[in-house]
Write a structure and sequence with these properties.
- InterPro entries: GlcG_carb_metab_protein, PduO/GlcC-like, PduO/GlcC-like_sf.
- This is Heme-binding protein.
- This protein is α+β, with helices and mostly antiparallel strands.
- It contains 5 helices and 4 strands; from the N terminus they run αββαααββα.
- The chain has one domain: 2-Layer Sandwich (Beta-Lactamase).
- A hairpin with a 5-residue loop joins β1 and β2.
- α1 packs across α5.
Amino acid sequence: MPDLTLDDALTLLAAAVTQARAEGVPIAAAVLDTGGLTIAAHRMDGCFPDGLALADKKAYGALNLRTATATAAEAFPAPVQLALTTAAPRVTFLPGGTPIHRGETLIGALGVTGGTGEQDVACCTAALKALAATAP
């Protein structure tokens, strides 16, 4: 099954929240399909009010750039980042956005915000591991 399902999205969110609790930070997380539409999103108690908006931008950036936002930030020089974010305001290069693949197929993206960049990436990594564990 190549599509990202609601059950998949909920698995991703639950694992991201579990990791956030272990990190001691309240996060917001968003799961998008390949069209950039939200499948599911969650904002923990105590996360900043615009957390969902930033989580969406991180997920959309990863989806659009086809790589983790932290990786893209290292790959693109600042002038290119500025040009891309100006042309596509829904894209960000902040760490915490990651594409989701099933095999080699891109099926969506996850964005996490609320901690440091490293904490957000750790939440994404935990979420991807949890989703992989559910694969047949």
